[in-house]
Amino acid sequence: MVDGAPLDIGGGHFLDAGNPAVDQFLFSFLPEEKWNRFKRISQINVNGNVIDHPMEANIWQLDIDDQIDYLKSIAAAGCNQGISAPEDFVDWIYWKLGDRIAEDYMIPYNQKMFSKELNELGTYWMEKLPNVSFEDTLRSCLEKKAYGKQPGHAEFFYPREYGYGEVWKRMAEAVTDHIQYHVFVNRIDFESHTVNEKYQGDVIISTIPWTCYEVLKGMPEELQKKIRKLKHSSVQIEYKKEYLNTKAHWIYYPDKNLPYHRILVRHNFCPSSSGYWTETNIERIDQSGHEYCFMNEYAYPLNTVEKSQIMEELLQWTRRKGVYGLGRWGEWEHYNSDVVVEKGIRLAGEVTGSCG
Q1: Are strands 215-217 and 187-189 parallel, antiparallel or unpaired?
Q2: How far apart are CA 213 and CA 210, in angstroms?
Q3: How confident is residue 345, by pLDDT bands cut at 50, 70 and 90?
Q4: Residue 195 β-bridge partners
């Protein structure tokens, strides 16, 4: 609790309204009437201009000269010219979005959020980016409204009286007899099916980062070496008291002169609250004093060039041993919470032989 309202130290998390089955499952722990539903308002502060997100759908909000420059750049992008996609991440961004969006937004933002060395990242995960259709972008500029695919969390839920962590606290309370807290998990024995040489089960489901394990007994050393190649980013959230005169729920900042890459405007989604918080990659932290901050060591799994191959091999091997990786860290995927819940329900059905 900070300034009389909950602050989500895990960063910006919301319940996507686009998966009714997951939503109804979570409402069985925190009833629907205890949530507010919002239509997403997210913005980008680019070159001093604040426009709605995604950028390519809202170029029409810029002045006419900028619109023309961006349209020319998108039309010349490799993907709109029939050119084959390049392999390097930075080149792929130029190919996909054109040089103006690449240089003004996507490259600096990704450097701030993930890593200065962007070419360590693969491009296999970027297909989730909406297609940047020149025709849709031109139409949006002519008709002055957004066209194209909406981003995730187009509509979302947030608790009326609590932080987002409340639903998980209540879920834990429902199975409290089956939870043991304050245990640092650092060993799995794949032969005896034990954790920490103490807890044994027919099935083991691991949701923590694979790099946290000190001992993976029975796993081939070659595979353990590959695990050590997995990378992640750490992000600090810092609370600011100031009131921001905006309707946005969150705003992206590609400006390299600012340390943080995103702010979340708490008073626009958390009732009876004030202020906002910033999210800043550990590589960009200002070491001066902070009134309230929290470092999330494991914030985002990095989609490095080798990651998908490593995780495919790892998860296939562990599954044969009756050990399942699940969720953002168990699968090393940047999943939102609704996706993790859906995958958890599906896995529960699989291992118990039920329908979930």
Answers
A1: parallel
A2: 6
A3: very high
A4: 188, 199
Q: What is the pLDDT of residues 194-208, one digit of tens each?
A: 999 999 999 999 999
**In angstroms, how far is CA 77 from the centroid of its own chain?**
27
User: CA separation (Å) from 175 to 29, 105, 126?
Assistant: 11, 44, 37
Residue 356 has pLDDT above 60, yes or no: no
Q: Is residue 5 within 8 Å of 273, Cβ to Cβ?
A: yes
For residues 43 and 52, is the Cβ–Cβ distance under 8 A?
yes
CA distance 132 to 156: 24
What is the DSSP code string of 229-243?
Answer: T--EEEEEEEEE---
| Residues 6 or more apart whose Cβ sits within 8 Å of residue 271 | 36, 160, 161
Q: Look up residue 130 and give its two tokens.
A: 């909406």
Alpha-carbon distance of 114 to 19, in angstroms, equals: 28
pLDDT of amino acid 91: 96
Q: What is the sign, positive or negative, of the torsion defined by CA atoms of 224, 228, 232, 233?
A: positive
Cα distances (Å, whole numbers) of residue 263 to 12, 42, 215, 234, 258: 9, 10, 38, 16, 11
- Considering the entire predicted model, what is its pTM? 0.92
- Tell me the pLDDT tens digit for each residue of 68-104: 999 999 999 998 899 999 999 999 999 999 999 999 9
